[in-house]
Every structure is written in structure tokens, then in C-alpha cells.
Design goal:
Elements lengths: L1 E2 L4 H9 L6 E4 L6 H12 L5 E4 L7 H6 L9 E3 L4 E2 L2 H11 L10 H16 L2 H6 L15 H22 L10 H15 L6 H12 L1 H20 L1
Parallel strand pairs: 2-3
Antiparallel strand pairs: 1-3, 2-4, 4-5
Helix pairs in contact: 2-4, 2-8, 2-10, 5-8
Length: 233
Amino acid sequence: MQSTELDPALAASLSAAGKSNITLVIGDKNYSSWSMRAWLVLAAFDIPFNEILIKLGQPDTTTRIAQYSAAGKVPVLLGDDIAVWDSLAICEFAAEQFPERDLWPRDAAVRAVARSICAEMHAGFKGLRSAMSMDIAGRYPGQGRTLQAQADIGRICEIWENCLAEFGHHRYLFGDFSIADAFFAPVVMRFRSYNVSLAPALRAYVERVTAHPAVARWIAAAEAEAAQRAAQA
């Protein structure tokens, strides 16, 4: 089990508020896109949490996940008296528990757009998921270009272009880093691994997301996992 580093004064205030006992159960950082979303939201907004990583595809994976999740999937957020077992639900829970962190945009209309694109990502883009699975350390230029994946790439580019132009001021999707950027971060990883051609403004967005401190930490851990796996092969 690992813990994120936290400013002592902040840790004390959170403990007093009863918000410090959070554990996030995740899968491999190189492959588990849904784990990445939830982890990034907690890490990017300095929400303290313990981390339990369960390697996927192992003989004991199903049994280990079942210890924490009746749904049999990761990620799962565990609190003192609560378990939240869906990435979007975890993000909403965090936003409710830490409203001062502005995990969503403050403006209600803008927040509705942000929630809409996250829900679209949560429920859709199956062509992209099946043809271009997340492998952060891998490089597969030109692969995975099925018709369904190409259609999904087009829709994602449309979302990014619209949000960056209208709300993002050419930074993140809604100005400051938010749940929306965390939700599309695994797509950023796919676009890097599969060398998807993007317009200059979208390439710049990919670079900004990749350079975000929380994303960079996840990438480094994913690459270390891949190196260890290769060494053991």
C-alpha cells in the first residue's frame, strides 16, 4: 500500500474534518484506464489517499478484487463507512467531499457541459476502446484505425476543439485542470501510443495534459511497471 504525500497542515485539517481515511484500489497503471481517471482526480487536487494496486491478468486478480468490489472491477474508493466502485461516481464523491477544490467548473452551465462530455466518455467510444487499448509504455503507430475508432477519434477531437475554444482559453478543457481532463487523460495516452495525427491546438493540449504533475507521476509509474514486466518475461 502506498500513500500520496500531503502537506502536514492540510492533513491535520482534513483529519479534523473526517476526510483523511480514503483508500483507492486500482489496477496496473500501464493498462487500467478507468483506474487512471479516479487516481488523477485525487492526486491532481491534493486529496489524500492510500493506494492499493492489484495486478490485472494474474491468477489471483479476481479473488483480490472481490475483497474490495462486489462488482468485480477496479477502481474502488473505500472510506470509513462507504465503498464507491465506479470511476465517475468516485469523481462525483470527491467533488462533494471537497467542494472548495473546484473539481468541476464553478459556473453551472459550464459544469453541465463538463459533466456531459464525461458521461459521453463513460458510456461511449467503444470503437476506440476495443481497437486502441491503453498501453502507456507501448508504441503502435498507425495501428487500430478501424472505422469505428476513426469515428470516435473525430468526435473526441470535436469535443476538445469546442471546449478549448469556448471554455478552456487554450489551456485545459475548462480553463483549469478538472475532472473532464482526467476523464480524457487515458485518451491522451492512447493518442500518444498510437501516434494519432492531431491539429496543432490539440497536439498542444495533449502535451499540456502529459506534462501535468499528476499525469506525469502516473506515466512514470506505468513505464516502471512495463520495464519490470519486460525484465521478468
